[in-house]
Amino acid sequence: MPVPPVRRSGEPAFRQQSIDEIGQPLATTTFVVVDLETTGGSPADAGITEIGAVKVCGGEVLGEFGTLVNPGLPIPPFVAALTGITEAMVAPAPELTEALPSFLEFARGAVLVAHNAPFDVGFLKAACAKFGYPWPGFPVVDTVTLARRALTRDEVPNCKLATLAAYFHTETQPSHRALDDARATVDVLHRLLERVGSHRVHTLDELVEFCRAVHPVQRRKRGLADGLPHAPGVYVFRDGSGRPLYVGTSRDIATRVRSYFTAAETRSRMTEMLTAAERVEAVECAHALEAGVRELRLIAAHKPPYNRRSKFPERVHWLKLTDEPFPRLSIVRKLADDAGCYLGPFSSRRTAETAAAGVYDAVPLRQCTRRLSVRTASPACALAEIGRCAAPCELQIAPADYARYADAFREAVHGDPAVLVDRLLARIGELATDQRYEEAATVRGRLVALLRAAVRLQRLRSLTSIPELVAARRAEEGGWELAVVRHGRLAAAGTAPRGTAPRPVLAALLATAETVRGGVGPTPCATAEETELILTFLNRPETRLVEASGAGWYCPASGAERFHDLLQKADAARSSADPLSDRGAPRTMHRPTRATA
């Protein structure tokens, strides 16, 4: 696969960004700074006595709105003393049903700003709900929160409006009257916007995010996201020495990387990673499939300390049926070019052992590890005495008869696992009938491990056996996403944009695609995770198969995948309180009655 361009954070982009990409600039954002005076602290039992608002944009005042409001409630004496608003003053004033629509029209399309915004916005929302007006969904900026983020305790002892107005020397001093307080808040807002500009806050989205509670490291390092492309691909956080710390993928690299510096990112290990990070590199990819594949390969190659998944694809296990007169199962780490039959890969040895136990429950394969002679007998183990082994060591069974058990395993790996599945289901039914539910759950877990491994192996082999497969998927924005797959490995990826004939693009991809030669085993040229990622892409309804060499892409009708419903039922039983019962009644599991292609 050709190496795509790498973009480092801070480097200039190769195209002009649109307004949608960079966000609404604060210099062109219209703010409506609002302040309310009320008869109490809760809209449930208090009313609005005055509304004051100032509309500003680019530092200029566009208009003002101010009116007294008849709350229809008595004004408590302490409120009248604080605000100077008396019942006599509000008696001739319009009621809220008249004042509210006028204010909503004044503020339409703007960003609401208030000092202690939850209080003012809460009253306005409650009024809209009471009188049947839909809440317009204004973006809201709280100058209290903004001041707490932008100022230190050494500068101001608290974030009260009077304190901030005195600190910034506003032209209007707050007086507990709505319009005066709104005018003072305007001056405070402008001074705070000047302050946060040094924190690289230049758009409305950045301002809203800045107001949220973020770690100081996130705020200090947010410049690492500058200059990254809005394109699918892989991003790599690196420390000062260039060592990869974390690798991720996204359909929009710039947006995803920015999210690491917002309040949405709460993982402590990511904060620790950002502390060490010094730059971010972006690898642009043709589409999401290529990005996912490159992510897996980079993680496997560099093993970044802050990635948890896919770091050690080489640490897999296989269940091998040995090639000898009396075969046995062996758990191995690597595939050999021999006559052995392999089932896997398993992500852990424990899972491989569980699947092997399922085979032993179904057929009496020997579990000893020594090599047996077809002529000379040797002492038997306890398993032979309790009937769990055919005792080939004592020559009680001929190699041809013993081969039937080994063939059942081979058939489960390469074709139909029905023999093993039927015997395990029968065993589960017997245990459930005897109300031995814990033992039945154990056998069910072994069945699931065995069957899931067989399904996975057959799906992988169905693709890795094809020398070359070409697929195309219609892109959301138009055009085609193209992929060339060879032996289960992504050899080339590209796009044919809208209006471009895909065939010439595909011909160029085929000419420059990576040369991939087949190898040993079901995943000879790529990790199982990469091939499964490709399978997910191919299985989408909108993906079209353009061409495939060899016998084509297929799975046997009698293969392991026809037990998909059985696996789903087993998973449902495992998640229930009683793993094999439904409200006290035994639950049995049945195999499908017909094969599906």
UniProtKB/TrEMBL annotation:
Signal peptide: none annotated. Keywords: Exonuclease, Hydrolase, Nuclease. PROSITE patterns: GIY_YIG. It comes from the Bacteria. One of its GO terms (biological process) is nucleotide-excision repair. Residues 230-308 form the GIY-YIG domain. Pfam families: RNase_T (PF00929). Residues 571-597 are annotated as: Disordered. One of its GO terms (cellular component) is excinuclease repair complex. This is DNA polymerase III subunit epsilon. It comes from Actinocatenispora comari. The gene is dnaQ.
